[in-house]
Amino acid sequence: MNVATSSPAEQVVLLDEGGRPIGVADKAAVHGANTPLHLAFSCYGFDETGRLLVTRRAWNKRTFPGVRTNTCCGHPAPGEVAEDAVRRRLADELGMRAVDLQLVLPDFAYRASAGGVEENELCPVYVCTLVGEPTPRPEEVDSWEWCSWESFLAEARADGGDLSPWARLQAPLLDERHDTWRRALG
Fold first, then answer.
1. Fewer CB within 10 A of the end CB, N or C, for the chain?
2. Among the options 93, 118, 121, 155, which is catalytic?
3. Choice among 73, 83, 93, 123 that is catalytic
4. What dihedral angle (degrees, nearest 10) is formed by the CA atoms of 72, 36, 123, 113?
């Protein structure tokens, strides 16, 4: 083993059907054809003018490569506070800082499959205001764009397209609570 290039495996928190932690496992070993329920998060980041940052997942990602999606997704590490995990991933993946981070959909969960890999996640959904312009890591993000909430919502509701299955489910639920979180973001 080359110690200089090795890094600890990313761990995810496994959950029972009630959403309670029951263990941890390597992320790479968990995501497969029959993925156990585990903890994740999604974040929708907006700039100061109200535009949403939409990303396209890198084409080399194991789960849902090349799909357009919300700003950032990830998994809290064992013992990590979810809000800290969101901030960590925004910084690591996009080089951005979040302010006004709010939990909007605490109980969102979904299951989706593509290319023989299943997602099975309890995935609380956050919104925030982003500071700066993205400087994405290419192994995480293929491309990005700023768009209006209304155009993203229309895309989520339309048939076809290349938007992630979780974003299609999350966007209408977020829109139902739009007045509350948009006011809080300023």
1. N
2. 121
3. 73
4. 60
Q: What token pair was written down for 20?
A: 């309670």
Q: Is 72 a catalytic residue?
A: no
Buried b (16+ CB within 10 A) or exposed e, 124-163: bbbbbbbeeebebeeebbbebeeeebeebbebbeeeeeeb
The number of residues in the chain equals: 186
CATH 3.90.79.10 fits 11-185, yes or no: yes
Find the farthest-apart pair of alpha carbons in the chain and give their distance in angstroms, rounded. Answer: 53
Predicted pLDDT of residue 7: 46
What does the pLDDT look like over 19-50, one tens digit per residue? 999 999 998 888 888 899 999 999 999 999 99
**Residue showing tokens 């800290």:** 84
| Residue ranges of domains in the chain | 11-185
Binned at pLDDT 50, 70 and 90, residue 184 comes out as: low
